[in-house]
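Students often ask why inverse folding is considered easier than folding. One informal answer: many sequences map to the same fold, so there is more than one right answer. In these notes we will look at a single instance of the problem. The structure comes first.
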């Protein structure tokens, strides 16, 4: 399944290359929501909240009221997750709150699990250079992606694996890295990071893996 990504920064829909370089910006949110209407779910990421420099909460609520969505970015507390679910989010994405630089924060994972159950939780495992990276992809950890998903599998229903090395580049997703993560868990994997054509999405689907797609949709390389 293809899951379109809608990332917000400073009130705009944006696409960044590896989380740093602005490649695309748009103020036509409703236009993108119309284009993505045929997809069962969209992914919404509040980049400002993820980086701790503000938030786009009003816009996120606007999307949650109109589309089934999984929402992430700055979800560090049960209260924040509850607010997103109350706003209409189908699932919430947990990221940096689940990791320190050298360990998976099992107590935090259990806290979210006890509040919401596994099905409404997605753990974001963002990998750069073979290791999980956190805090808006600015802080490296010593944890591998496979180690992260193995540890967190009892607490979440899905994993969002982002291959940061190729994120936003449209150079193609690193399938070997994705399969390594898939082998480490029985939970469903959602893969992101460099998808450039529909054939990749179809191949992932045949393997039981969903694909989050951003740049390829916004540039028209994959047409909706």
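Output (designed amino acids):
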């Amino acid at each position: 399944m293809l899951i379109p990504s809608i990332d917000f920064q400073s009130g705009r829909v944006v696409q960044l290359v590896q989380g740093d370089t602005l490649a695309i910006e748009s103020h036509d949110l409703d236009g993108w929501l119309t284009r993505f209407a045929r997809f069962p779910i969209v992914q919404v990421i509040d980049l400002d909240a993820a980086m701790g420099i503000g938030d786009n909460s009003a816009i996120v609520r606007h999307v949650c009221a109109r589309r089934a969505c999984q929402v992430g970015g700055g979800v560090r507390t049960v209260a924040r997750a509850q607010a997103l679910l109350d706003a209409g989010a189908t699932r919430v994405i947990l990221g940096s709150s689940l990791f320190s630089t050298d360990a998976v924060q099992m107590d935090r994972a259990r806290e979210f699990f006890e509040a919401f159950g596994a099905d409404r939780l997605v753990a974001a495992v963002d990998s750069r250079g073979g290791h999980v990276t956190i805090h808006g992809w600015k802080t490296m950890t010593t944890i591998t992606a496979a180690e992260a998903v193995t540890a967190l599998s009892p607490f979440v229903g899905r994993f969002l694996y982002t291959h940061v090395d190729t994120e936003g580049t449209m150079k193609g997703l690193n399938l070997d890295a994705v399969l390594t993560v898939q082998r480490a868990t029985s939970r469903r994997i959602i893969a992101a990071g460099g998808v450039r054509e529909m054939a990749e999405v179809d191949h992932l689907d045949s393997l039981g893996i969903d694909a989050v797609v951003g740049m390829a949709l916004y540039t028209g390389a994959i047409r909706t």
